[in-house]
Amino acid sequence: MKFRKKALLFIMVLTMMKGGVGFSAEPPVLTLEDCVKASLADNPVLKESVSNVYFNKAMAGAARSAYLPQASTNLGYTHYDASKITVPVSAASGLNNGSLKRYNVAAESSGIEQLIWDFGKTLNDIKLAEENMTSAQCIFLETQENIILEAKKAYYGVLNAQLMLDVAREGLVQSRAHLDRARGLFEVGYKQKYDVTKAEVELLNAKLSLVTAEKNYKLAKVLLNNIMGRKDNPDFVVEKSGIPMIADIDLKRSLKTAMDSRVELAKLTSQTRAAQADFEAKKKGNWPVISAGGAHQVSDTSAKGIGNVKNWNAGVSVNFPWFDGFRTKAKMEAAQENLKIAQYAIENETLKVILEVQDAVLSLREAKERLEVTGKLLQQSAENLEIANARYQEGLGSIIEVTDAETQLISAKQSRTSAISDYLISQAKYEKSVGIISQNIQAKEHK
What we know:
- By secondary structure, the protein is α+β, with helices and mostly antiparallel strands.
- The chain has eleven helices and six strands.
- The strands form two sheets. The chain has a four-stranded antiparallel sheet with strand order 2-3-5-6. Strands 1-4 form a two-stranded parallel ribbon.
- A hairpin with a 5-residue loop joins strand 5 and strand 6.
- The radius of gyration is 40 Å and the shape is elongated.
């Protein structure tokens, strides 16, 4: 019993040392890179895109196989029983009825066929399959970029909520200090009871703001955990780093970068080339197919007087499907319309990309200006609060003046925090709009 008690005590102490009972381990600090990599690691949508790439790669290989020789072997074994049938046999054959009533036949036939020319039908089928594979690769990259953007937005959402929580906690500490000061001045008869009541109301409002900020912070972390695929929803904090300010964006250069880098445009271009190849293949549907082939056959019969039979053949054949009930004509018309649809899709996507880049550039410029303005506003609000506190201590100002100054400072800090988050999100959207959002991630992975 004593040994069990000692062992149990040892386990309890060990658990406490590991952050279990009595100790709260510090949550890990996640960087933006950590969150992006975790979001890409086990994302089911991205896995689906990868499988789609491998599927189309296999289909491209199947299309290319049409230019290689096609060989096959057939094996057969047949038992014949004609015991109830009388077969007349001529005397010259040297056979009798009994030898043909029951016998077995084993046969083997091997052949090979090689396509010589089909006027480009197979070649265009290969182009179609390869362009489909390229399109699948673009879909994978597009999916990856969307995941990176969502991960960045969620990360910056946690950063914003984390900073807002710090502001709320600071406001609560400030309100408590203000209440203590008002009570002290009231007790010595320097201030009225109204000042204490006003400070108490201010403290309650600060507590409500803290509750809201804590809820928003928890929800933001739940969203980021969900994007990272962390089902157990572990606790964490995000890294507080400097704001990566970028120079003013040139719209023309941004549009050119988007036209060269957006995977959506590359995907639709590949789909247009695939539709063109399909149309060219359908146009050759009624054209001849020239191929060469040969076969070797062996059969072994158990009937007396027959034995083994061997033969082989080789030659060139031309298959000319000159009429198929207008089926090829209908397929060609459908392929032509599909080509037009793909071409119109490129035009539509180009307009969408131009609009998206313009919106991203304008939003980034606005966010940058807001960042500068809120910085100045925060500085002025802090100075205003110092003046209001000094006037209140000297009896020159009222409690309302101090409360307004404190509210203004809290509001300025919240505006500054929102401006930081908005700028970072606008920057991520700009990187996505011009097609460079995944470049930094890929560059780090190749190092």
